[in-house]
Amino acid sequence: MSDEETELERKIKEDRESKSILHQVTDTKALIDKHYYRIDVIERILESKAMENDERDRLETELGALKEILQRSEKELQGLHNSNRETTKVAILVFFLVFCIYCIYAVFTNEN
């Protein structure tokens, strides 16, 4: 199972590296929403349904795992937002630099 999990994590990393930050943010938000929904369903089942101890333990284990995944996904989303902010800052600086160069060019080439 560990080999399958590491292989899955490797594939996820490769997939995310090939996507833009905006697509990664969208995918992570969708994953978070899916996990919130699943957590809500499991909590409702645990509250309302009478079940055997082994089934209850299985659902509680799944609930704990989902909460852990959700925390990691939210941290990843925060990191993606920070990365997106950095990219935006760089783009604004490049735009400002080009604008300044154009203004200097316009001043020196203006014959008025």
Secondary-structure topology with pairs:
Layout: H1 2-18, H2 21-48, H3 53-109
Description:
This protein has helices spanning 2-18, 21-48, 53-109. The protein is 91% helix and 0% strand. It contains three helices and no strands. With 112 residues, the chain is mostly helical. The protein starts with a helix and ends with a helix. The radius of gyration is 24 Å and the shape is rod-shaped. The longest helix has 57 residues, at 53-109.
Spell out the key features of this protein:
3 helices; mainly alpha; single chain; rod-shaped; 112 residues
Helix and strand content put the structural class at: mainly alpha
Residue share in β-strands: under 5%
Q: What's the helix count?
A: 3
Average residue-wise pLDDT: 83
Radius of gyration: 24 Å
> Biggest sheet: strands, sense, closure?
none
Count of DSSP strands: 0
In short:
The protein contains 3 helices and no strands.
